[in-house]
Amino acid sequence: MKSRQDLERLKEKTLEEIRLRMASGAPRVVVGMGTCGIAAGARETLLAIMDELKKRRRTDVTISETGCVGLCAKEPLVEVTLPGQPTVVYGNVDPSKARRIVLDHLINGQPVTEWAVNVIPSPKEKEK
Questions:
Q1: In a domain, 20, yes or no
Q2: Which domain does 32 fall in, by range?
Q3: d(CA 105, CA 81)
Q4: Which CATH number do you get for residue 90?
Q5: pLDDT single digits (tens) 22-77
Q6: Which of 68, 76, 102, 119 could form a disulfide with 52 if both were Cys (CB 3.0 to 4.6 A apart)?
Q7: Distance between CA 78 and CA 91 in Å, rounded?
Q8: pTM for this prediction
């Protein structure tokens, strides 16, 4: 970076990449980062997800954070959405479970049902 203009160009390029991923129906992961989630280890869970995706060179996954969703006893919570599939909410996700969720669900498309606390139908399934 040599100037503020270089920084602005980089910012716009990055924001455009984010918009494209979100609009394209890319896989999405949401980690509960309310105080209850953080106290239960959500930061470490989030870092494990990011690390595992990086190792597998998966740059198409949108990762975001949310506040408390009211299931404090099940924190850390991780929500995984793949295009055209139901959203799966996982509970009590430690870094080890997070890595398996990345491999089984995000990479291989197979939800880890024994850790699921909720399954939300996809919009297409709701129409049926």
A1: no
A2: 25-127
A3: 9
A4: 3.40.30.10
A5: 555 789 999 999 999 999 999 999 999 999 999 999 988 989 999 988 899 999 99
A6: 102
A7: 7
A8: 0.79
